[in-house]
Write a structure and sequence with these properties.
This protein is mainly alpha-helical. Helices cover 74% and strands 0% of the residues. The chain is globular.
Length: 500
């Protein structure tokens, strides 16, 4: 990536239009994939969302599309307002198509952060035209005052409507930010370490609900297993501390300062970075490789210099060596990917089935893949599920204990509790179930597992206590399964009352 960025920096002045065109073609391909998913030609494999592009999530897909919106707006603006654009006609038509598809797909993806970022993109690109219209219309002081008041009212109303559109999601994000800021307050200088929000946020959330009496019922209702902070700035500050944030601020300042004498081309890439930064305040674009690559490209194009700025000449042999190095690295990654991926997909399919007597996946095969994916928590959890279903409770528990050091979620502790229960370590199983319950207090399954555990031990008082809590619980997502669980617990309570 560093070599790639260097070559971008040295060649931006030679043919910047082709670079912009290549980026927009990638965006058009993603839009085509999204349309095919919408009409059912392509299946993204996601159980809840129909349109995700190749990103696996509609929010990140929307963030990718909106990050390229300033590029398309720039070309359209030059075509409409400034004739003589140095782009071929098919590039213009492609940009028109990109804008039309963006306005069609973004509402379907239902990402509020992308809507806000899209408004910023349009404002930045067309700010001079907007200002010209406003100065022409607002030629008197009273007009300016009325316009300012109406703008403020419309802004507040729009924010409130966006909040109400997915209120549970908004409140859930506020909870995540609150807990994340609490983590930062305990480690303000150097943070908790890179990627530890991804690995251990749920542990902090469990501690919050287990120890904080001020936790509200609304917070418990909107809690969930979380792996990102839904605000990249807060997340980076929490993981890297003030020291890391100062370094990042210095880098951002250096990038923007290098473009203080904006050319029209560079201002377009600055607009792209500004849109991504705004989107990052409500989502997690920095966790996606495609958006990170675009950020590197935009930074390289902003701070680009002619090749003579670095050296007088670069020999053909050096250029060839760099290309061979990049190609060899990509080929190695592809070979490793195609070697591991089929086995991993097969393993996860088996982990989801009830019958795991498949002879193709003996223990030697599991161990062979484990050598390659020993640090992948999702894979190790899948392996633990297989071991549990085969009755190897001790091995499954040992593996889960190792996974808990690098990852955390409620399902992990439920599986851990099931292994402990099978080994008749009931007190430890109870603790594991309660840990899972405190991570996501609105889940019914941890309470049901506790209910079954207490019945197995003959502790009817504890079973009644858990059942009464579960019956009164307001589920975040009601289903036939939760209704069946509540019915079973209600029947138990009725029988217990009659017996007494």
């Amino acid at each position: 990536m560093s070599i790639f960025v260097f070559f971008l920096r040295t060649r931006i002045h030679q043919n910047p239009g082709s670079i912009v065109l290549a980026i927009l073609v990638a965006g058009l391909l993603q839009q085509a994939i999204g349309l095919l998913q919408m009409i059912g030609v392509l299946n993204n494999g996601h159980p809840y969302f129909r349109i995700t592009g190749t990103f696996g999530n509609p929010g990140v897909f929307a963030g990718y599309l909106v990050s390229l919106l300033p590029l398309a707006c720039y070309v359209v603006k030059r075509h409409i307002f400034e004739w003589g654009l140095p782009f071929p006609n098919f590039a213009r038509y492609g940009c028109y198509m990109y804008l039309i598809l963006c306005f069609f797909l973004l509402p379907l993806l239902d990402s509020r952060a992308s809507w806000i970022s899209g408004c910023l993109a349009i404002f930045i690109v067309y700010r001079s035209e907007i200002w010209r219209v406003l100065t022409t219309f607002l030629n008197k002081r009273w007009k300016k005052s009325i316009f300012s008041i109406l703008t403020a009212i419309l802004f507040l109303v729009a924010i409130y409507i966006i909040h109400l559109h997915k209120e549970d999601s908004s409140l859930g994000r506020v909870l995540v930010w609150k807990i994340t800021i609490g983590i930062f307050s305990k480690n303000p200088i150097f943070g908790i370490g890179f990627s530890n929000i991804l690995n251990h946020y749920n542990d902090y959330q469990q501690n919050y609900f287990a120890t904080q009496t001020s936790a509200t019922a609304l917070e418990k209702l909107n809690a969930d297993n979380v792996y990102v902070s839904f605000n990249e700035i807060i997340e980076f500050l929490t993981e890297e501390g003030l020291a890391g944030m100062l370094l990042l601020a210095a880098f951002v300042f250096a990038v923007f300062n290098s473009a203080k004498h904006f050319s029209t081309l560079r201002s377009m890439f600055v607009a792209c970075l500004a849109v991504i930064l705004l989107f990052a305040c409500f989502s997690y674009p920095f966790h996606d490789p495609a958006i990170l690559i675009n950020i590197c490209i935009f930074c390289a194009l902003i701070v680009g210099r002619p090749v003579v700025f670095y050296c007088k000449s670069i020999s053909f042999a050096w250029i060839t060596a760099v290309r061979v190095t990049i190609f060899a690295g990509m080929l190695t990654c592809l070979i490793a990917l195609f070697y591991v991926l089929p086995d991993v997909i097969r393993l996860r399919q088996i982990a989801k089935t009830v019958n795991v007597t498949d002879p193709d996946f003996s223990r030697s095969n599991l161990n062979r893949i484990s050598l390659l994916l020993s640090h992948d928590p999702e894979y190790q959890t899948s392996k633990a599920i297989i071991l549990y279903r085969k009755g190897l409770f001790g091995e499954s528990l040992d593996l889960l204990n190792a996974v808990c050091k690098s990852s955390s979620n409620s399902d992990l502790y439920l599986l851990k509790g099931q292994n402990l229960e099978a080994l008749k370590q009931y007190h430890l199983a109870e603790a594991a179930y309660y840990y899972a319950l405190n991570i996501v207090p609105n889940r019914l399954l941890p309470r049901y597992m506790l209910f079954k555990l207490y019945l197995k031990q003959g502790d009817f008082n504890s079973a009644a206590f858990v059942s009464s809590q579960a019956v009164r619980l307001k589920e975040k997502v009601p289903s036939t399964t939760t209704n069946a669980i509540k019915y079973e617990m209600s029947s138990f309570l009725n029988k217990l009352k009659k017996s007494r």
